[in-house]
Amino acid sequence: MSPKIERSIYIAIILVLSVVLISFGKKEVELKKQIPITAEELYKKLSNPKIKVQLIDVRELTSSDEVGGYEDSRIPGSLPYPNCDDSKMNEGYLAEAKKRINPYMYTVIISKDGNPEIFKKCAEKFTNVQNLAGGMKAWQEAELPDESGEYTPPKAGGGGGCL
Q1: Which of 24, 78, 83, 131 pairs with 6 at a CA distance of 20 to 30 A?
Q2: Cα separations (Å) of 112 from 4, 28, 58, 116?
């Protein structure tokens, strides 16, 4: 067999294997979307500085129910994005938060109670996303750390984890 034909066969095999590998990666991301993450699992991921997680809180800024809104109680480091509605992101500190949202980063959507409808709406805006099972209510019931007040972006050069 001539070297040119042999090289062509190897290149074809590599291309086929690459396509198979990419399709498996896409399937894994789609399956991950369907399985919500528990509050405890999320806390473990946030505690590991090697894992980068973007937290998007889709609750209203304030709320009178027992869970509260974003400003009442939130997971440290979460970004406000009320109802995944871009029209609400142009005022005050929400505009600053919008600049920090990365649609390509691994993202966890936080609603009041893990609402699958709001998750589905938000999941369209991110490539690698999971829903927090039970939402902020589950986080509070697990007595995991939270913070309150308006969103303030992290200071430049500040290191360390958020928890």
Answers
A1: 24
A2: 61, 27, 8, 11
